[in-house]
Amino acid sequence: MNPLINKLKKYGPLSQEAEIAIAKRTKHLIKKKHEHLLKQGQTLSSYFLIEKGLIRGYFYSNHKEVNAWFGIENEVYASILPVYANLPSLENIQFLEDSIVYSIAVDDLNELYQLYPELNLIGRKIAEEVCMILEERINSLHTESATERYQWLISKYPYLLRRVSLGHIASYLGITQETLSRIRK
Amino acid sequence: MNPLINKLKKYGPLSQEAEIAIAKRTKHLIKKKHEHLLKQGQTLSSYFLIEKGLIRGYFYSNHKEVNAWFGIENEVYASILPVYANLPSLENIQFLEDSIVYSIAVDDLNELYQLYPELNLIGRKIAEEVCMILEERINSLHTESATERYQWLISKYPYLLRRVSLGHIASYLGITQETLSRIRK
DNA sequence: TGCTTTTTTTGATATAGATCAAAATCGGTT
DNA sequence: AACCGATTTTGATCTATATCAAAAAAAGCA
Asked: Which nucleotide is nearest to A177 (CA to C1')?
C-alpha cells in the first residue's frame, strides 16, 4: 500500500474499494532539486505526501518570492484552494532537494469524493488540521518578534537549519537575510 | 428553518432527517454586549451563526488581550480546535454588541457527524473555507505593512470602522492604538 | 585542486512602529 | 445640559528591523 493512503487512513476509515480506487489514481513522482510540483495558475496536485525530500510553498509579493511553508517527509499536504473551489493555485511548490512524492490530482480527488463519500470525513479532518496549523502561524506572525519566531521555528523544525538556506528561512519568517544572520548570534 | 441550517445547506446537501436532528440541537442565544459566548478552556460552541450583532475572538499574549478575528451577521463560524480534537478552546469569544446567535455545541456536533455522515461534506467545505480565510490573513501579516493591512481591512469590512473601537482594530492588526490613529490621517 | 557562484556575515545608516505621557474628544448617564 | 469615564489624538523619544554596500565564507563544479 502506498504511504499516502496509509497516512489518509490515520484520519478516518476507508473501505477496501475506496483504497483501491485511490491507489489507482495516486501518482508517484521522482523530482530533482529545483523542479516544481506546482506553479501558480495550475490545477494539478491536491493532496500529496513526500516520501523523501523537502519542498517549499511560495508566492510572489511585489515581484519577490516569499516562502509560505516548508514540507517534509511523511506528512500529508493539501493545496486547499484547488480542492475547495477547483480554482488554480495561487502558490508555487518547489523541491529543495531531490524528492519522491505521492500525489493525487484535483480532478481525481473530486471524483473520489463523489464515488466514496466516506472520504469526506478524512478530508474534513485534514482541513481541520490545516486550520490549526495556520492558526498557530497567524498567532506567531501576529504577536511574536522576529527572534521569537525564529526560535519557535528551529525548536519545532530543527532539520530546517541543516537542510534549508538562511535566505529561505528568513523569507518564511518575514524578515531579511541580514536580520536573520544577526539574530543567529 | 433556523438560519444556521439554512447556511449549512449552502455547503452541501442535507437529508430531511439530518435537518430535523440539527434543528433539535441548535441553541438560540440572546446575549448582551460584553458577555461571552466562549471562554478559554471551555468546550462549548463549535459551529455558530450570528443573526444579529457583532463578536470578537481573542486570546492572551503576554497578559494582554489580542484580537484574532471579528464575526458578523450571517456567516458560519467554527471553533476548529474543539471540533477537530475535542479539546478546550484556546480562545475567548465575546460580544461587542447585543447579539442573537444560533449555535451547535461540540458534543452535539460530534454526535451529528456520526448519525449523519453526509454532514462531513459540509464540515469539510467549511473547514476548507476557513483555511482560505486564514491563508489570506497569514499573507497579510507576512508581507504587508500596518498601513496596507488597515486599508485592506476597511475596504473589505467597512462596517468595522463604525461598529468597533479603534483599539480593537489596532489589536487585530497587530499594532498599537497610537500607530493606528496616525495611520488614519 | 582551484575557480566561480552562491550564501552568509558585517558595517553604516534609515525608517516603521513602539512606548510613555498628556491633552482632546466622544458617549453614555443622570 | 453637565458630568464622568472611555476612547482617540498628539508629541517626544526609543527600538527593532530594513536597506544598501561590501567583505568573508561556503558550496558547486571543471
From this structure: C8
Sign of the C-alpha dihedral, residues A70, A73, A78, A79?
Answer: positive
A168, three cell numbers: 529561505
How close A43 comes to chain B (CA, Å)? Answer: 16
HEC string of A10-27 equals CCCCCCHHHHHHHHHHCE
Q: Which of A70, A78, A69, A74 is nearest to A119 (CA)?
A: A78
Asked if residue A61 lies in contact with residue A91, where contact means CB atoms within 8 angstroms, the answer is no
Q: How many CB atoms lie within 10 A of CB A111?
A: 14
At residue A128, what is the residue type?
A: E
Measured in degrees and rounded to the nearest 5, phi and psi for residue B67 equal -80, 130
**What is residue A53's three-state secondary structure?**
coil
A151 sits within 7 Å of strand D by its CB? no
Mutate to test the interface with A, among B138, B152, B153, B169 (most CBs of A within 10 A): B138
Query: Which DSSP state fits A3?
Result: H
Task: Give the three cell numbers for residue B107.
Answer: 458534543
- The Cα–Cα gap between B25 and B107 comes to 10
Give the separation between CA B30 and CA A120, rounded to whole angstroms: 33
CATH class, range A3-118:
mainly beta
pTM of the model: 0.95
Side chain identity at residue A134, one-letter code: L
In tens digits, chain A (185 residues) has pLDDT values of 899 999 999 999 999 999 999 999 999 999 999 999 999 888 888 999 999 999 999 999 988 999 999 999 999 999 999 999 989 999 999 999 999 999 999 999 999 999 999 999 999 999 999 999 999 999 999 999 999 999 999 999 999 999 999 999 999 999 999 999 999 98
What whole-number distance in Å separates Cα of residue B74 and Cα of residue A164?
44
How near does any CA of chain A get to the CA of B172, in Å? Answer: 8
- A116 alpha carbon, distance to own chain's centre: 24
B174 beta carbon < 7 A from strand C?
A: yes
